[in-house]
Automatic annotation (TrEMBL):
This is Sugar isomerase. It comes from Arundinibacter roseus. InterPro entries: L-rhamnose_isomerase, Xyl_isomerase-like_sf. SUPFAM superfamilies: Xylose isomerase-like. Gene3D superfamilies: Divalent-metal-dependent TIM barrel enzymes. Keywords: Isomerase, Manganese, Metal-binding. It comes from the Bacteria.
Length: 427
């Protein structure tokens, strides 16, 4: 299924007058505060977030999985799905592949297909948390951290293979997330596990092309529940520094113990120039992978406030970040879910761009605690939706992507094309 730009423009017609009015009103209000709405709209229009190839089917839990129907079963269909989201939102201009779930049989053809949808290849993800059909050694007790050299070598070789696949697609970064850890005290030697991991990452790093970056993702628990080798940002930073200047930390919002101050982690990593990428999602309890902004939108805003501050005060030369959504669950239509996540990301970004940083710094110098909070909340409580709609309009996206998705009857069309009982590869 392909949605033409003309169809989107037609649908937008009836909302244009109202949009012009609300955008004009907000623009005036921001003007009075010395904020240029046009600059913000431009930032929003340029902001692109990668969609992971495993989030296009209905996610499951270990208790069950309910197909959405019409799910993509090939990489080509996954790219088409991202193309649908991108043409509506104009924000999903990249895909993040998971190897081996999505090995392209013909990289050149896939590249062309993605290109025709305006989609680039973002970070490629390796997988050493599952056994593959043809592999010699099991990852049951570990991969890069495993006590057996043969297991580690197999996991290293897999990561190097993922780099080769990514290279053929024009990808420029590798994300490593390890399940390695232990569920019981006494199971593993902490120091040896970490040393093995560092050496293995160094070996993978040595195969990284000059213009590539490596992202090291951390997570406190799950799938193992006593210890995880790369448990937190400190461990991730230590490993990244042990590899070299092309290695960075990756923050997944769901990978923190409850109430962790994630915005402070973002600030610290950017101060060190070591924040490489971001996995957006939301959670109430753990790595829930819920729709971005569905539970803690104020936290998301505070995180974006640090990201914006970090990008504007970049003494450590932190490179541009790789943005990705890492969310999927089993209730919503996965494409509508992703559209909601993209919207939430844009909202938080726009609000953060509104923060009056000089005034905030002055309030901090004056120890005016109340004013500091007021300044942040003034930005957070501004209805920035007209800015986001304006950014989409200028790129010929849909004024209201969810409404457009429904009015084009996308899911039923996909079910007609692909069938009702479909299973997308992935988690
Ligand atoms: C796992 O919890 C991490 O969030 C990974 O980033 C990701 O979900 C996984 O690599 C997908 O397979
Ligand atoms: Zn993640
Ligand atoms: Zn996760």
């Amino acid at each position: 299924m392909i949605i033409s730009k003309d169809k989107i423009q037609d649908l937008n017609q009836k909302g244009l007058a109202e949009q012009a009015e609300s955008f004009g009103f907000l623009k005036l209000a921001l003007d009075k505060k010395g904020v240029d709405a046009e600059t913000i709209v431009q930032h929003l229009a340029d902001f692109q977030v990668a969609i992971p190839s495993w989030a296009l089917g209905a996610g499951g839990t270990r208790f069950g999985r309910f197909s959405a129907g019409g799910e993509p079963s090939t990489l080509e269909q996954k790219i088409e799905d991202i193309g649908l989201i991108h043409c509506l939102t104009q924000t999903a201009g990249a895909v993040s592949l998971h190897i081996p779930w999505d090995i392209p049989s013909d990289p050149e053809a896939i590249k062309q297909l993605a290109d025709s949808h305006g989609i680039a290849f973002d970070a490629v993800n390796s997988n050493t948390f599952q056994n593959q059909a043809d592999q010699t050694f099991s990852y049951k007790y570990g991969s890069l951290a495993d006590r057996q050299q043969a297991v580690r070598e197999q996991a290293i070789a897999h990561n190097q293979e993922v780099i080769r696949i990514g290279k053929a697609l024009g990808s420029q970064s590798l994300t490593v997330w390890l399940a390695d850890g232990a569920s019981f005290p006494g199971q593993n030697n902490f120091r040896k596990s970490l040393q093995h991991t560092q050496r293995a990452l160094q070996e993978i790093y040595s195969e990284l092309p000059a213009d590539w970056r490596m992202f090291i993702e951390y997570k406190p628990y799950e799938p193992y529940f006593y210890s995880t080798v790369i448990q937190d940002w400190g461990t991730s930073l230590l490993l990244a520094e042990g590899c070299g200047e092309k290695a960075f930390c990756l923050v997944d919002l769901g990978h923190h113990l409850p109430n962790t101050n994630i915005e402070q982690i973002v600030a610290t990593l950017m101060m060190k120039g070591k924040l490489g990428g971001f996995h957006f999602n939301d959670s109430k309890y753990g790595d829930d992978d819920l729709t971005v902004g569905s539970i803690k939108p104020y936290q998301l805003f505070l995180i974006f406030n640090e990201l914006v501050y970090g990008m504007n005060n970049n003494e450590a030369n932190n490179p541009p970040l790789a943005w990705m959504i890492d969310a999927s669950h089993n209730l919503k239509d996965p494409l509508e879910d992703l559209i909601q996540s993209l919207e939430a990301i844009q909202l938080a970004y726009a609000q953060a761009l509104l923060v009056n940083t000089p005034a905030l710094e002055e309030a901090q110098i004056q120890n005016d605690v109340v004013l500091g909070q007021e300044l942040l909340q003034d930005a957070y409580r501004t209805d920035v939706r007209p800015l986001i709609r304006e950014a989409r309009l200028r790129r010929q996206g849909a004024l209201d992507p969810i409404a457009a998705y429904r009015s084009f009857d996308v899911r039923n069309e996909l079910v007609r094309e692909r069938g009702l009982k479909t299973v997308a590869t992935g988690l």
